[in-house]
Predict the 3D structure of the following.
Amino acid sequence: MLLIRHCQSANNALINANLENAKRSSDPGLTALGESQSEALRDLFREKRNDGRAREAWTSPMRRCLETSRAIARGLEVRVNVMVDLHEHGGCFDGARGGEVVGERGMTKREIEEEFPGFDVPATMERGWWSEERGCESVSDAQRRVEGVADWLWTRARAMASGEEDERELCVVAHGMFIDILLKTLFDAPRTTGKQRSLFCSQNACVHKLHFDVANDGACVGLQSFNDVSHIPECLRSGGSVEGLDVAYTHEGSA
């Protein structure tokens, strides 16, 4: 499995992306730097396409991941599956005015399919994937949601190991805090709210490689490479700070 963090978004480029910053977007796209990073990802996955291995692409429904996934899909020449549960902690929300948090609907199935041809969007997103009533998702709710994604990954791994499914490498495009929660879940690290004792920090456009080993004597997941940005020129690298991820836990709504 390849776990990829999205390229630099407009919120990532802000000094402070919390709810007090009026420039924060509920669903930002990529910056010019992020677009350059996506081109590097496209080239990386174009090289991978030639190794003969079957791959399957999945993405969060948030714009920064959709734009990142489009570059990966062009490299691999595959379709992309949209999964709502891959979204970042908090969901799609606004509320920089006076501290009031208001949920947004997020992009709809039709909007994504029109702007991103070759993306397969679930029917449940007909009216979007978030709502005004949901506001900002809590860290504890995000942890429970990501636990479900971890279960899905193990289900896919077991199906491939048993021959129920053809073997293929899953390429999952998600978010910095989501990735931290997922890795903590998979490796049984403490998952707490508030100040964190440990963090898995991902740079923009990085690639983590994991192997799910389904064996008779017990299942095991291995982290084969972490935060690989060797495909990104040093002048184009961004993100991955401890401070930025720590703030997302201590001040909910800053992701």
